[in-house]
Design goal:
The protein has 397 residues and is of the alpha+beta class. Helices cover 32% and strands 36% of the residues. The protein contains 6 helices and 17 strands. The strands form 3 sheets. It has a 6-stranded antiparallel beta barrel with strand order 2-8-11-10-9-12. A hairpin with a 2-residue loop joins strand 10 and strand 11 (309-319). Helix 2 (98-120) packs antiparallel against helix 5 and helix 3 runs antiparallel to helix 4. It is elongated. The protein starts with a helix and ends with a strand. 16% of the residues are buried.
Amino acid sequence: MSRRKKRRFEFRFYVIMLAALGLVGYGLVQLVDGLIQRTAVIESGGASNEYVADVVIVRSEKMEDVEGLSRIKYYADEGQLIYKGNKIADVYASAYSKTDENKLLNVRERIKNYHTQKLATDTRDPTTAKLDAQAQDYAHEIELVIAGKTTGNLLNLQRQIQDVLSERQNHLKSRYSGDQNLNTLYGEESALVKKIEGWTTTYLAKSDCLISFYTDGYEEILTPASVETITAQQVRAVLQGETPAQTPSQRGRTPVFRTVQPKGWYMLLLSNDPNWKPVNGQSYKVKLAGFEDMTIDGVVIDSSRSGNEILVRMSVDGDVRTVLNTRISQATIGEQYVQGLKVPRNAIYQQGGELGVVLADTQMFAPITVIEQTNSYAIIQSQIPGALVPGQKIKVF
């Protein structure tokens, strides 16, 4: 073979080899691109929405008011949870006389001193010693609770120490029933107590409840019984700060306190969002202005629409203390209205006028419905039940 023919053969050989390498390289690039760069994994996803509304709070509460008020003595603090039978307040009528109360305190001090003198000369009374020891134990426990050194219910401890002191007093009355001087003092005490009781109304808790001293006049209007009949116009009046009209029975009376059931309350939400279409029994996540760090679970009781305005009534099965003194607020209502699958937006492929995704393993086209999409991803649902599940690989175009 001549040298010129040999060179031509070598040149053609190298050209063919380069072309073959180029084809193989292109194929590898396409394979890697198809397997790694141009696929994605289906994820779980959901489409959500948010609405805004003005809200009126409705609680299960009762306001106590009196006529001819002179003085109030409270036994509970604002926002305190008290139990059925506990004393809330003593309300003194306008005829109440402070002089008679001072006389009563003076008589009781004389009785106490007389008891002290009698007991100093009577060392044979183990019952009194036992009751004194119990009273001291309760008093010490109260001091520890107040100091934060232990936990306990102050109201229960107070009731227990009062019971012991009452038992002690009854015991001493019985023990010294023949003492004429002491009987005279007891008679004066009884007469003054009856006189003062005629001016005093004592309020006891009828059930476990929260106590509040702040009232706005809507306590007897916005009630659980009226939630489903309150109109949008009435809600708007509350939101605008209109003062409720007093009934004839309320005129001339002074609010004293209100008792509030600690769990379970309601929201009346007024919104102008035409897209909000709540369904009875549907749950929402609600955030109130000023309480953004807390999410409230509300359930739709009922709703009514007039034009673009909708009134939604919700129940809340939760602690009322957060909104104990809140009547109106603004709310953001979050709705998780559909569960779906999350895919990259460029994984959606059109075939025969139908949208779908292509499975990377089988090249099968799966038709879909697009629920929601952004610039980067889409929330979809498969039109064929079970055809698409989280974790599957799909092609990206």
